[in-house]
């Protein structure tokens, strides 16, 4: 049945207004010739119609006030519902944050426990390696003379019961070769069949690392009183060190003034020292060449020496021009000036 706005306005009632749809309210507004838009909300159109009817005294003023009270109550309910939902969201966010923090703490605890297990296993493995090596027959040179390592005496003085326990775990037994040897993994080369203590590659690396190497600040000291075979071997090693210096050796010239009275010198570069040095006596240095300052030099022996500084002229493949050098009566590498 179609809605008739004229019949409805003959007996208007507030309860009937509550049951009207938006389309019916639009028809009423058009019938009353109200200024409105169809896109307006239903409640706004309803309020416009009621105001119009109250102004024309078709409805009583109390009905209008009652309608306003209902509208205010509805707004308050909406605000309360909105506030309750916001409170629930905040509570859920707090619970989620607490759960995330608990998960982080548990994960950190798990990671720490695994790292502790790994460190313990690594320490046990290193302890086995450090106590498995044998030093029998090796001698150590010291300033007081040659003597056998104390670890040899400890190895020789082990009780018989311990030797029996070691013999029961024979690496060359067939049972070990068939099963246990396959399960061994070297911690250095990552290959199966042996431990880090028996790694051939690691032994070769240790031999290379333990080989003594000289630097520009130190050199083997040789005296003419050494006539034994050990001193001859020491001299041959000194020659080897000098051979290693050759790629870093070059020729140059120095003088007090630019390009005048150039004196040839032998340069050793890449010494990693913070101060360049010149052999005393190469140039006739005097007060005018001095910069009036000195530097403290310290070598591997941890002793400090006071070295005066002079300004000279250097001509070389590396640099050409005035430089400041420290002057020493002797240098650690023979032939370098």
* Uncertain residue segments: 133-172, 214-227
Please give the number of β-strands: 8
Biggest pleated sheet? 6 strands, mixed
Look at the helices and sheets and give the structural class: alpha+beta
Apparent shape = elongated
Q: Roughly how much helix do the residues carry, as a percent range?
A: 40-55%
Per DSSP, the total helix count is: 10
Measured between the Cα atoms of the first and last residue, the distance is 121 Å
Oligomer classification: single chain
Order of helices and strands: HHHHHEEHHHHHEEEEEE
Q: What would CATH call the class of the domain at 247-328?
A: Mainly Beta
The assigned CATH architecture of the domain at 247-328 is Beta Barrel
Radius of gyration: 50 Å
- Report the sheet-strand fraction: 15-25%
CATH topology of the domain at 247-328: Cathepsin D, subunit A, domain 1
| Average pLDDT taken over every residue | 72
Short summary:
By secondary structure, the protein is α+β, with helices and mostly antiparallel strands.
Q: Overview of this structure, please?
A:
With 337 residues, this protein is an alpha+beta fold. Among the domains are: 5-59; 170-211, no CATH class; 247-328, Cathepsin D, subunit A, domain 1, CATH 2.40.70. It is 48% helix and 16% strand. The protein contains 10 helices and 8 strands. Helix 3 runs parallel beside helix 4. The radius of gyration is 50 Å and the shape is elongated.
Fill in the keyword field for this structure.
337 residues, two-stranded antiparallel sheet, six-stranded mixed beta sheet, 16% strand, single chain, Cathepsin D, subunit A, domain 1, alpha+beta, 10 helices
């Amino acid at each position: 049945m179609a809605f008739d706005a004229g019949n409805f306005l003959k007996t208007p009632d507030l309860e009937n207004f509550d049951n009207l749809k938006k389309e019916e309210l639009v028809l009423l507004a058009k019938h009353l010739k109200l200024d409105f838009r169809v896109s307006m909300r239903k409640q706004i159109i309803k309020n416009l119609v009621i105001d119009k009817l109250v102004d024309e005294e078709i409805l009583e003023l109390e009905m209008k006030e009652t309608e306003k009270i209902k509208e205010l109550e509805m707004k308050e309910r909406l605000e309360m519902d909105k506030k309750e939902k916001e409170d629930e969201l905040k509570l859920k966010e707090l619970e989620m944050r607490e759960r995330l923090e608990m998960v982080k703490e548990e994960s950190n605890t798990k990671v720490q426990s695994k790292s502790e297990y790994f460190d313990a296993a690594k320490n046990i493995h290193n302890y086995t390696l450090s106590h498995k090596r044998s030093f029998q027959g090796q001698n150590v040179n010291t300033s007081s003379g040659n003597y056998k390592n104390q670890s040899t005496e400890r190895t020789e003085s082990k009780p018989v019961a311990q030797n029996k326990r070691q013999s029961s775990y024979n690496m060359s037994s067939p049972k070990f070769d068939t099963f246990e040897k396959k399960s061994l993994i070297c911690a250095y080369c990552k290959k199966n069949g042996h431990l880090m203590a028996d790694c051939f590659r690691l032994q070769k690396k240790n031999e290379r690392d333990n080989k003594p190497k000289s630097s520009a600040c130190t050199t083997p000291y040789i005296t003419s009183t050494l006539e034994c075979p050990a001193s001859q071997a020491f001299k041959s090693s000194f020659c080897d060190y000098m051979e290693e210096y050759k790629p870093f050796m070059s020729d140059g010239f120095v003088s007090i003034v630019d390009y005048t009275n150039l004196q040839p010198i032998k340069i050793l570069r890449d010494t990693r020292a913070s101060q360049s040095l010149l052999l005393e006596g190469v140039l006739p240095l005097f007060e005018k060449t001095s910069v009036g300052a000195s530097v403290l030099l310290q070598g591997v022996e941890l002793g400090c020496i006071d070295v005066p500084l002079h300004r000279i002229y250097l001509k070389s493949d590396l640099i050409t021009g005035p430089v400041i050098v420290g002057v020493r009566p002797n240098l650690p590498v023979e032939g370098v000036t």
